[in-house]
Design goal:
4 strands; about 30% helix; 4-stranded mixed β-sheet; alpha+beta; single chain
Length: about 130
């Protein structure tokens, strides 16, 4: 499985939440669970299946907080049964969450990403026992 973390707003990155950190966190969790991680995917030529992580955050200065949303999806490349010559990328599993944190606690969003990845791992291991 490859891992792709979507771009994160530069302001959020300056406050301490970087895509590279999330990428490392996610890959480590997958490996610890015994799920093989494919080399980093090039966005132009992704490898499938793909665990896709999207973090959106908006800074509300007047309240000194970030409103955020996180989506974790598993996407896969499939051939269509009725038209085997046609294929598509489809989402085969997804989950999301949203919340808010103080601007000085934006790094805790990494924990929320980890919780969603753990949810995927639990589903994956239930369907793929060792």
């Amino acid at each position: 499985m490859s891992v792709f973390v979507d771009q994160i707003n530069p302001e959020v990155q300056r406050d301490g939440l970087a895509p590279g950190q999330i990428q490392t966190d996610v890959e480590l969790r997958l490996r610890k669970a015994g799920i093989r991680v494919l080399p980093n995917a090039d966005p132009e030529t992704p490898l499938f299946p793909q665990l896709y992580v999207k973090v959106r955050a908006v800074k509300r200065r007047e309240f000194n907080l970030y409103a955020f949303s996180i989506t974790v999806q598993v996407n896969d490349f499939v051939d269509l049964r009725r038209k085997p010559t046609r294929s598509a990328v489809v989402t085969v599993w997804d989950t999301d969450t949203a919340g808010s944190v103080g601007t000085d606690k934006i790094r805790t969003v990494r924990d929320a990403v980890g919780d969603l990845v753990d949810e995927f791992i639990n589903h994956y291991l239930a369907q793929n026992p060792k």
